[in-house]
Specification:
This protein has 72 residues and is mostly helical. 44% of the residues lie in helices and 8% in strands. Strands 1-2 form a two-stranded antiparallel sheet. Helix 1 crosses helix 3 (39-46).
Length: 72
C-alpha cells in the first residue's frame, strides 16, 4: 500500500512540474535537469501500464500531454 501511495505522489509531483515548466508538447519538452526532478521519477511516470500523460522523447526530454491527446 505504501508503495502505491508513493508512486501516486511521484506521478502527481512529476505532472505538476511538467505543467509548471510549460512542457506540454514534444517541442517544449524539458530535461530532468531543467525540471529539477530525478530522472528515475520521470522514467517511472512515463513507463506506467496505465497512461499517465507523461511522455519521454528519444533524446531524454519529457512532456505532459493533455487528456484529449493520445499517448504514443
Amino acid at each position: 500500500m505504501a508503495v502505491a501511495a508513493y508512486a501516486g505522489w511521484v506521478l502527481e509531483r512529476t505532472k505538476k512540474a511538467l505543467k509548471e515548466a510549460g512542457a506540454t508538447s514534444e517541442e517544449t519538452a524539458k530535461t530532468p535537469k531543467e525540471l529539477k526532478l530525478d530522472e528515475r521519477w520521470l522514467k517511472m511516470s512515463a513507463n506506467t501500464i496505465i497512461p499517465s500523460g507523461v511522455v519521454a522523447t528519444k533524446d531524454g526530454r519529457y512532456y505532459l500531454i493533455s487528456k484529449n491527446e493520445k499517448q504514443q
